Amino acid sequence: MNTGFNIFREKLFQQGIFSITSIRIIFPGFNTDNLLSWQKKGYILKIRNGWYCFKEFLSVTDHHFLIANNIYQPSYVSHQEALSYYGLIPEHIVNSVSISTNKTQVFNFYGKVYKYYSVKPAFFFGYCLKNMTVNGENRNFMIAEKEKAILDLLYIYDFYRTAQDLEEIRFNEQVLQNDIDWKKMDEFLKRFGIISLEKKILTIKKIYNI
């Protein structure tokens, strides 16, 4: 590796993921031709236009959350990926699913699909910051709260309609009973103002004796 790249890596390594904009803040007048050269040499990976990471970043636990938040903004992780993160469903989710106020979009990077579902701004709420460590530095990512992850799933995936459909999600009964704030769930439901969504939550409560 040349001296130029070593300095570049030293300054940006702890960010994990970086954009051309963030590069130019640290290195004004940076020649972007270097990025193509370093990609060819395997020093860095291009995630999508304007976004890059060091290959070592892919070994960081939960690295995909930081990627998902940054490459398409505004967005927060939700749906099955958030449900899996909280232990609400048993499956390990391979692909990333997020909510955004921008148009629905899909990106592919390093064998993983990053999908973004579009919602109107009024439904872009109910997310929180979680902490992760990247190369010794604390970084935050945005993910739906447990209650909102459930509602996002049921709102976007309208094919979950009957009790049988909802049972197929295979919610963790213990987590539903002990970790879900049902008062908060009711508050979120009011913000949606969708009767069919309220009925689905009532059905879930009946299924799991809540």
Features:
2 domains, 210 residues, alpha+beta, 10 helices, four-stranded mixed sheet
Radius of gyration: 20 Å
| Helix percentage | 40-55%
What percent strand?
A: 15-25%
Largest sheet: 4 strands, mixed
Count of spatially separate domains: 2
Mean pLDDT: 95
* First and last CA, distance: 59 Å
SS-derived structural category? alpha+beta
Number of beta strands: 9
What is the topology, as strand order, of the major beta sheet?
4-5-7-6
Structural shape: elongated
SS element count, helices: 10
Low-confidence stretches: none
Order of helices and strands: HEHHEEHEHEEEEEHHHHH
What does it look like?
This protein has 210 residues and is of the alpha+beta class. It folds into two domains: 57 residues; 145 residues, no CATH class. Helix content is 42%, strand content 23%. It is built from ten helices and nine strands. Strands 4-5-7-6 form a four-stranded mixed sheet. Strands 1-3-2 form a three-stranded antiparallel sheet. The protein has a two-stranded antiparallel ribbon with strand order 8-9. α5 runs antiparallel to α6. It is elongated, with a radius of gyration of 20 Å.
Question: How are the elements arranged and paired?
Answer:
Layout: H1 3-12, E1 17-19, H2 20-26, H3 33-40, E2 44-48, E3 51-54, H4 63-71, E4 75-77, H5 79-85, E5 96-100, E6 105-109, E7 112-118, E8 127-134, E9 137-144, H6 146-156, H7 163-167, H8 173-179, H9 182-192, H10 195-207
Parallel strand pairs: 5-7
Antiparallel strand pairs: 1-3, 2-3, 4-5, 6-7, 8-9
Helix pairs in contact: 5-6
